[in-house]
């Protein structure tokens, strides 16, 4: 029973660390990409305003062509930004589904352990300290260094009648 609990508890924690690292990397990448897009949009806004102030056009049609090209560039950047946003949303949606499936699996494993403990508890002798599951749970201590629970040793308390 203890081996099963350690496999379930320690195994899930290891996966959680991996998932957290993966999530941190993806979030850093998304933040970096978002900042790049914002900087590119600000730069394009500054460039377009400078061009329109510095250029003196010979005809209205020439001005229309130049501004149409600028508008096409802006539309292209907007499409790229929208595509990037959709990709990021899809990626975070997949991560969310992955987290939810992990949570569901952990809940199932927890229910299995709880049912197993409920079945095994009736087999433990009454004079053993493990016969009272709630008392044992109160005595559990989490050890941060080793990353596991410190469980009290089983003790059999025999009572002697006079």
What does this structure look like?
The two termini are about 35 Å apart. The chain has two domains: about 20-125; about 125-155, no CATH class. The chain contains three helices and two strands; from the N terminus they run αααββ. Strand 1 and strand 2 form a beta hairpin. A two-stranded antiparallel ribbon has the order 1-2. Helix 1 packs antiparallel against helix 2. The protein has helices at about 1-55, 60-120, 135-140, and strands at about 140-145, 150.
Short overview:
With 162 residues, this protein is mainly α.
Helices and strands, with pairings:
Layout: H1 2-54, H2 60-121, H3 133-139, E1 141-143, E2 148-150
Antiparallel strand pairs: 1-2
Essential attributes:
mainly alpha, 162 residues, single chain, 2 domains, KIF17 protein, two-stranded antiparallel ribbon, rod-shaped
Q: What number of domains?
A: 2
**Termini, distance in Å?**
37 Å
Binned, the helix content reads over 70%
Largest sheet geometry: 2 strands, antiparallel
Count of helical stretches: 3
Main sheet strand line-up? 1-2
Order of helices and strands: HHHEE
Uncertain regions: pLDDT < 50 for 5+ in a row? none
Number of strands: 2
Oligomer: single chain
* Rough outline: rod-shaped
Rg on CA atoms, Å: 32 Å
Mean pLDDT: 81
Portion of residues in beta strands equals under 5%
Structural class: mainly alpha
